[in-house]
């Protein structure tokens, strides 16, 4: 995944550059740069969204696999036979959500005017993703004595994730908000019988779900910020060129 | 000295000096002293309020600094030590199975055995969760050891195994027909055994040997369909056995192993079986367990074939659980985590930059992390914690937790240290810079992990334990392994840099050849150690064909060899790991079987209670361990046991040693451990039964000892058996054999050790193939990016060169000029010093002219100059003080010595930066090893400090106490006056009176002391200095007097060259000016040291002090270049007529400023006949704005000889030491040249336009 990620990001870079240089050469008239900037931004946004979406889908598939292995979630039997043993709508939902989150984070950063500077490099992002997968892994595979312990541990891990890789207040608040919303949505889904948990301990769902959501939000935000960094670089380069 | 007049400019200078001090060369403790963050002067008067944190920080930093020094100083021992510790810590890993695939076992007692229930029971202690329900099968092995006893010399080798193997049929009969009857009924084997049906389709060729449609009962008899007749009629048993063996490198579970039940090495079925004991098993696979039946079978067999000295334990049965095959559902998350891990490693190591070999360092980083993990697992195993987590699953997370960050931070920190420092110091400084953050991070991580430890979840606790140990070992490896590798790499980079920049610097033959050399004759082959004539310099510029370049690349990097080597290493590793040849088991068997009762694991093989991974190739406890025979009297027992007694043995002389001893050892107890762990799965898979996620129970073996008489053996012979030649009878007695085995083991161990060392060495060479430690040039090894001539195996010869430190300048060196005897240097402060290039003495000091005028008021420069110039304040002819008729020089000194700076400067503020402040330079001693340097400079300038004692102490510390306080107290650099200096002093005195009038005209314009020296050239005893104001000055090098000056041009002089009696000056605007130097008195009084005289024209500057020298602009070429000329060279000696007569004879290199990094390329030269030319490759920044570090303005010199027609490159004499490169960067160190060999030459530096 990450390899494709890098390849894609690289291709993003190169294509963006090509577009820029191409438009700069061909469109000498005064509106040329403007158009190119517009196209550049929109395509950039689209590409970023697509990448985030694919990452989200992929992670959803993989992590769901972990959960299904332990029979944490149960899907209706007719859907189980589908490709990756989860309902068809789960990966697209996760993908969309991750794309939104990944685009929202840099947006909020730029709105607040405090660009995220902490550990802005791909290796850190990869580490973050690995820790996120690890948290999921732990939630699925580690035997805890009781659910409270599990939830507390995961909460601590998630906050540790935020502290290690994000450390921004906006990230934290956004993460908490989205996690709460997502938990609510899941509650509603389960309530309506779309799917169910084998051993719900928090109303209809598992109590660790908010923690996982929070960690996922932080991770996707991290990726989104890193991707957005390329766009900033373009803009900077452009201003340099100008 | 007062500080009350210090202006912002002074502060700047202080800053400059501070930075200068920071970049000094030899300052082992400097980071402690000179950290900009820390309060200065702490070393002398530590502030009382230093927080604990700061103290700690400082201590950590100092410790890291020392550690860095240590690592960089002794790379090889440290790497060896690290490798040894890694191997030691990883040794316990040998007991662990391969992650994920190894089966696990669980031992229970036989007596109270009952089939476990399916339901998970509460807490049954250590009972693993797979131990539920009945096993797939029970394995009952009957271990048969048979021997023909006593051995008769009339027997042939086949007798060793024919009759013992023949016994298998009767045993089989016995087992099959065994019936146990008691109250509950009659049970036979048929009712209990595992009934198998067809073989797996595709195994038709095994149909003949493996049972079908019946009991799964395998024995060697299967080779002959369990029919005695077939066996008896088989002419060649070995061939039959071998027939079913797969060809080539067989895997560990072969048919032979399956049938014999013991590894092939132990069966003893061969012609060369010296022990003459045949071992095999009859394996009965039972589907249900009936203790009474088995007990009666055991008793029956024991009764039939008693094993006298057998003490095998029979009370444990081992349940072996086989792992599931990994399904795709498990595989995908696993693969994902690994992909993320690799992406992480990739993105991390991608950041490694500015090093010689990125790949090498990335590999080192990965090795650091991986081996730290291995070490952690090994250590945990050593201390009794068996990993229960799936190693493959948690491994990526462990790597991510431990991380590569520290390694990267270390690398970054080290490469960002000043490049002109020594490697050791760079490493040390880099380490100490990052020490605090590293320690902080580590403490944080440890805290987090410890918190995780208290979650009290067993899995997380285990993970945390591994992570903690891994973190600590990772820290250890970073500190020792990675730092050392980094230092090696940095050293390599420095060497490579040196060799690239200085392809062949080395000493030019001294341009002032002492003896005359016949001119037109081509130079005789120079002293061979210093020159190697290489073919085709043109290769450098030639574009080689692509395939040639590929070949060169292959040859240069030795790619093929390295790949082969790495492949071999990997292969050997695989061999050792999988152990197909059974070396380990062989060794173990050799050792253990030599001991009669061979109970190596009496203590080493406790009943395996609990979960312990199994199925190594051999029993690790008995591997390589030599146990003394616990039974002190094996022989009597053996006699009692032998059926035929000692009588026969007594009859035959060879007999006693030839009595085969059947021994039962602990390794027989669980002989199946020596089998491959795929043994049972493969056996069951033949019948399409999978053992994945299931378990089998292995019952204790039934030992059967069979002694056969020679008569029996002879009777069962096949007629063809005797045709085999008897093997060479072992001549050695048994005890000698034991000894030999010991020797063998020792020799093998020694060989293994040597092999290991060689392997490590090879690996080391692969990783760090270039020699790094030696300063100087390498032998044999070649560097990428060198001259192509190096591609042919040339390595420049090495000569011993020790750098000579010339100290005295207070600022960065800007220009250097030399003619071999003298070395003139000019620093940014405008001070020109003339050094004796051979001895390193400072002969003359020419201070900045503007300063001199005002010196009567301040006097600081002068006093400094006076000391340096003449070497002692007692010298009455001290140039400056004499010239001004004042006492300042000595006076200032004495005042300082007395402790109170009396002199207050009355001079007004001057426009220049550096002239208007007290000269603290005497207190800057770059020799930081001996005294604290920075306290004065960085102390806020305030009046009233008493520095006297400080100064005095500094002096006293540095210099040996001199009888007189006035005797050469000053600088660290000025050596005691040499003979040459003493000789020259009178002349100094002579000229002194004439100086003021000379200087007067030159000190006119204000701009004079604003201008700096941009170019300098030295010829004879004349120094030509070109200033930024466009003024050309001629100084007397020895006397330090201004001989004449010319201010015809306004553009700054950027380059100078002497040509006989002309001086060519290149100006900033690209024009060339030609000055003629006229000497009124033609007679040369001084010995000329430059090019030899020739003809009537005074060819070179050769002046006496009485001469009146004038310098006139004779010709000017405007716009010779469009860009400023940076380098200007004239043929030395001016030997060529063309060069003498016409200015076109100059080799003027057109310089082209390439925008990209700071390289001046040269192009265009005029062919010159039989003249030595200096080609100067200039690497420097030509514009000050682009010049971040003036120290980058280094110059590499390359001496070439051009023949008339065919260019002929000559290898240079040996390169001078690497330290040459740092000359211009080190302040307070005028020049460190290597001038101890006659072939090294002081190089002139290209003007660094500061």
TrEMBL record, chain A:
GO cellular component: SREBP-SCAP-Insig complex
Transmembrane segment boundaries: 45-66, 86-105, 148-165, 172-191, 203-223
Membrane topology: Multi-pass membrane protein
UniProt-recorded Gene Ontology molecular function terms: lipid binding
Annotated region described as Disordered, given as residue ranges: 1-28
InterPro entries: INSIG_fam
Keyword annotations: Cholesterol metabolism, Endoplasmic reticulum, Lipid metabolism, Lipid-binding, Membrane, Steroid metabolism, Sterol metabolism, Transmembrane, Transmembrane helix
One Pfam family named in its UniProt record: INSIG
UniProt keyword Cell membrane present: no
Superkingdom: Eukaryota
Main location: endoplasmic reticulum
GO biological process, one term: cholesterol biosynthetic process
Entry's localization field: Endoplasmic reticulum membrane
Protein family: Belongs to the INSIG family.
Function in brief: Mediates feedback control of cholesterol synthesis.
UniProt protein name: Insulin-induced gene protein
Organism annotation: Labrus bergylta
Automatic annotation (TrEMBL), chain B:
Alphabetic keyword roster: Endoplasmic reticulum, Glycoprotein, Golgi apparatus, Lipid metabolism, Lipid-binding, Membrane, Repeat, Steroid metabolism, Transmembrane, Transmembrane helix, WD repeat
Domain called SSD: residue spans: 330-488
Family assignment from sequence similarity: Belongs to the WD repeat SCAP family.
One Pfam family it belongs to: Sterol-sensing
Ranges of compositional bias, category Low complexity: 964-978
Protein name (database record): Sterol regulatory element-binding protein cleavage-activating protein
Skewed-composition ranges (Polar residues): 924-937, 1219-1239
Membrane topology listed for this record: Multi-pass membrane protein
Main location: endoplasmic reticulum
GO terms, molecular function: sterol binding
Domain of life of the source: Eukaryota
Transmembrane segments: 326-347, 359-385, 397-421, 442-460, 559-577, 745-764
Position of the signal peptide: none
Gene source species: Labrus bergylta (ballan wrasse)
Source lineage: Eukaryota, Metazoa, Chordata, Craniata, Vertebrata
GO cellular component: endoplasmic reticulum membrane; Golgi membrane; SREBP-SCAP complex
Ranges for region Disordered: 504-533, 620-652, 911-943, 958-983, 1206-1250
Subcellular location: Endoplasmic reticulum membrane; Golgi apparatus membrane
Alphabetical GO biological process terms: lipid storage; regulation of cholesterol biosynthetic process; SREBP signaling pathway; steroid metabolic process
Ranges of Pro residues composition bias in the record: 508-528
């Amino acid at each position: 995944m990450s390899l494709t990620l890098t390849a894609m990001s690289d291709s993003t870079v190169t294509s963006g550059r090509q577009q820029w240089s191409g438009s700069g050469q061909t469109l000498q008239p005064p509106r040329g740069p403007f158009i190119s900037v517009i196209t550049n931004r929109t395509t950039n946004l689209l590409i970023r969204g697509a990448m985030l979406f694919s990452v989200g889908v992929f992670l959803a598939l993989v992590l769901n696999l972990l959960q299904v292995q332990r029979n944490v979630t149960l899907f209706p039997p007719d859907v189980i036979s589908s490709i990756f043993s989860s309902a068809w709508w789960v990966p697209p939902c996760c993908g969309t959500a991750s794309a939104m989150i990944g685009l929202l984070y840099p947006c909020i950063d730029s709105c607040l005017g405090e660009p995220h500077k902490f550990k802005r490099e791909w290796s850190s992002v990869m580490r973050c993703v690995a820790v996120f997968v690890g948290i999921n892994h732990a939630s699925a595979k580690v035997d805890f004595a009781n659910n409270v312990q599990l939830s507390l541990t995961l909460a601590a891990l998630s906050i540790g994730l935020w502290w290690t890789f994000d450390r921004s207040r906006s990230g934290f608040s956004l993460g908490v908000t989205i996690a709460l919303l997502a938990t609510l949505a899941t509650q509603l889904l389960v309530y309506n019988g779309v799917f169910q948990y084998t051993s719900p301990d928090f109303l209809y769902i598992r109590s660790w779900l908010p923690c996982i959501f929070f960690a996922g939000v932080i991770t996707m935000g991290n990726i989104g910020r890193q991707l957005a960094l390329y766009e900033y670089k373009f803009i900077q380069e452009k201003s340099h060129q100008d | 000295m007062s500080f009350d007049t210090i202006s912002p400019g002074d502060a700047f200078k202080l800053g400059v000096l501070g930075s200068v001090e920071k970049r000094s060369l030899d300052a082992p403790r400097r980071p402690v002293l000179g950290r900009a963050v820390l309060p200065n002067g702490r070393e002398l008067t530590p502030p009382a309020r230093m927080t604990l944190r700061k103290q700690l920080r400082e201590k950590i930093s100092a410790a890291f600094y020392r550690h860095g020094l240590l690592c960089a100083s002794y790379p090889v021992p440290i790497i060896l030590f690290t490798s040894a510790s890694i191997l030691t810590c990883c040794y316990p890993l040998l007991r662990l199975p391969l992650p994920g695939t190894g089966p696990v076992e669980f031992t229970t007692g036989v007596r109270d055995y009952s089939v476990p229930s399916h339901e998970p029971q509460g807490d049954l202690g250590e009972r693993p969760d797979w131990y539920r329900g009945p096993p797939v099968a029970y394995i009952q092995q009957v271990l048969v050891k048979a021997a023909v006893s006593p051995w008769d010399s009339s027997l042939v080798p086949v007798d060793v195994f024919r009759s013992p193997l023949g016994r298998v049929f009767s045993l089989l009969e016995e087992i099959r027909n065994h019936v146990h009857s008691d109250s509950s009924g009659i049970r036979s084997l048929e009712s209990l055994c595992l009934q198998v049906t067809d073989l797996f389709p595709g195994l038709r060729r095994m149909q003949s040997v493996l049972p079908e449609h019946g009991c799964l009962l395998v024995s060697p008899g299967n080779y002959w369909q369990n029919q005695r007749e077939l066996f008896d009629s088989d002419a060649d048993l070995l061939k039959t056995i071998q027939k079913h063996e797969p060809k080539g490198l067989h895997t560990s579970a072969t048919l032979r192993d399956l049938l014999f039940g013991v590894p092939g090495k132990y069966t003893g079925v061969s012609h060369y079986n010296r022990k003459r004991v045949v071992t095999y098993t009859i394996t009965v696979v039972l589907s249900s367990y009936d203790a009474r039946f088995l007990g009666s079978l055991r008793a029956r067999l024991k009764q039939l074939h008693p094993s006298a000295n057998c003490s095998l334990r029979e009370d444990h049965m081992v349940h072996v659980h086989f792992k599931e095959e990994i399904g795709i559902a498990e595989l995908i998350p696993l693969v994902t985590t690994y992909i993320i891990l690799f992406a992480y490693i990739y993105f991390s190591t991608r950041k490694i930059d500015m090093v010689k070999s990125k790949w090498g360092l990335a590999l080192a980083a990965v090795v650091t992390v991986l081996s730290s993990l291995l070490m952690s697992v090994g250590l945990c195993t050593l201390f009794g914690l068996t990993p229960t987590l799936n190693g493959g699953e948690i491994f990526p997370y462990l790597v991510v937790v431990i991380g590569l960050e520290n390694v990267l931070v270390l690398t970054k920190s080290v490469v960002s240290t000043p490049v002109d420092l020594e490697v050791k110091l760079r490493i040390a400084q880099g380490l100490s810079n990052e020490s605090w953050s590293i320690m902080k991070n580590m403490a944080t991580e440890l805290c987090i992990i410890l918190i995780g430890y208290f979650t009290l979840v067993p899995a997380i606790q285990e993970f945390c334990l591994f992570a903690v140990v891994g973190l600590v070992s990772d820290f250890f490896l970073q500190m020792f392994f990675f730092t050392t590798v980094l230092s090696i790499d940095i050293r390599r980079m420095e060497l490579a840099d040196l060799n690239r920049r200085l392809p062949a610097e080395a000493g030019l033959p001294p341009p002032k050849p002492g003896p005359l050399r016949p001119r037109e004759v081509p130079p005789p082959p120079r002293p061979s150690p210093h020159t190697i004539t290489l073919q085709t310099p043109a290769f450098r510029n030639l574009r080689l064909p692509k395939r040639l370049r590929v070949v060169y690349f292959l040859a240069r990097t030795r790619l093929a060899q390295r790949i082969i080597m790495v492949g071999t290493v990997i292969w050997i590793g695989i061999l050792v790991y999988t152990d197909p040849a059974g070396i380990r088991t062989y060794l173990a068997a050799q050792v253990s079987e030599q001991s009669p009762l061979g109970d190596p694991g009496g203590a080493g093989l406790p009943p395996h209670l609990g979960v312990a991974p199994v199925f190594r190739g051999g029993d690790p406890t008995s591997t390589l361990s030599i146990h003394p025979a616990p039974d002190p009297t094996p022989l009597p027992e053996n006699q009692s046991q032998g059926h035929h007694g000692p009588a026969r043995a007594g009859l035959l002389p060879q007999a006693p040693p030839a009595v085969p001893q059947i021994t039962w050892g602990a390794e027989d107890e669980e002989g199946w451990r020596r089998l491959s762990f795929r043994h049972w799965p493969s056996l069951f898979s033949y019948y399409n039964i999978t053992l994945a996620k299931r378990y089998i129970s292995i019952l204790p073996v039934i030992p059967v000892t069979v002694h056969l008489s020679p008569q029996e053996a002879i009777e069962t012979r096949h007629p063809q058996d005797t045709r085999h030649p008897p093997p060479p009878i072992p001549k050695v007695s048994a005890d000698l054999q034991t000894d030999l085995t010991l020797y063998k083991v020792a020799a093998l161990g020694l060989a293994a050790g040597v092999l290991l060392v060689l392997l490590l060495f090879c690996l080391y060479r692969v990783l760090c193939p270039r020699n790094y430690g030696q300063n100087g040039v390498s032998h044999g090894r070649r560097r990428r990016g060198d001259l192509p001539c190096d591609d042919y195996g040339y390595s420049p010869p090495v000569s011993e060169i020790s750098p000579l430190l010339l100290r005295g300048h207070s600022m960065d060196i800007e220009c250097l000029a030399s003619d071999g005897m003298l070395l003139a240097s000019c620093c940014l402060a405008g001070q020109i010093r003339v050094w004796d290039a051979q001895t390193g003495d400072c002969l003359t000091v020419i201070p900045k002219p503007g300063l001199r005028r005002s010196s009567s008021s301040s006097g600081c420069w002068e006093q400094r100059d006076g000391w340096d110039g003449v070497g002692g304040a007692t010298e009455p002819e001290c140039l400056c003080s004499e010239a001004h008729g004042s006492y300042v020089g000595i006076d200032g000194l004495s005042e300082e010595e007395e402790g109170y700076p009396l002199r207050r400067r009355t001079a007004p503020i001057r426009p220049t930066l550096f002239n208007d402040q007290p000269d603290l330079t005497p207190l800057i001693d770059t020799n930081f090893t001996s005294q604290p340097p920075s306290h004065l400079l960085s102390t806020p300038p305030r009046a009233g400090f008493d520095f006297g004692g400080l100064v005095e102490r500094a002096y006293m510390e540095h210099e040996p106490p001199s009888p007189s306080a006035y005797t050469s107290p000053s600088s660290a650099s000025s050596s005691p006056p040499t003979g040459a200096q003493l000789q020259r002093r009178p002349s100094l005195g002579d000229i002194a009176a004439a100086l003021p009038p000379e200087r007067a005209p030159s000190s006119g314009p204000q701009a004079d002391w604003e201008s700096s020296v941009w170019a300098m050239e030295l010829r004879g005893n004349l120094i030509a200095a070109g200033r930024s104001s466009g003024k050309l000055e001629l100084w007397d090098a020895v006397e330090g007097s201004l001989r004449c000056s010319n201010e015809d041009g306004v553009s700054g002089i950027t380059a100078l060259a002497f040509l006989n009696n002309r001086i060519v000056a290149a100006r900033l605007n690209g024009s060339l000016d030609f000055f003629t130097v006229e000497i009124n008195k033609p007679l040369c009084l001084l010995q000329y040291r430059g090019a030899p005289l020739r003809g009537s024209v005074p060819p070179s500057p050769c002046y006496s002090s009485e001469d009146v020298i004038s310098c006139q602009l004779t010709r000017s070429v405007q716009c010779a270049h469009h860009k400023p000329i940076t380098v200007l060279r004239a043929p030395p000696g001016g030997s060529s007529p063309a060069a003498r007569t016409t200015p076109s004879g100059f080799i003027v290199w057109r310089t082209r400023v390439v925008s990209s990094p700071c390289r001046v390329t040269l192009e265009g030269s005029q062919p010159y006949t039989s003249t030595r030319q200096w080609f100067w490759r200039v690497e420097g920044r030509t514009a000050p704005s682009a010049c971040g570090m003036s120290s980058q303005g280094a110059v590499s010199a390359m001496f070439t000889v051009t023949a008339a027609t065919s260019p002929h490159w000559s290898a240079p004499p040996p390169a001078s030491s690497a330290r040459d490169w740092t000359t211009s960067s080190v302040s307070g160190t005028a020049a460190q040249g290597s001038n101890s060999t006659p072939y090294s030459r002081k190089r002139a530096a290209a003007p660094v336009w500061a």
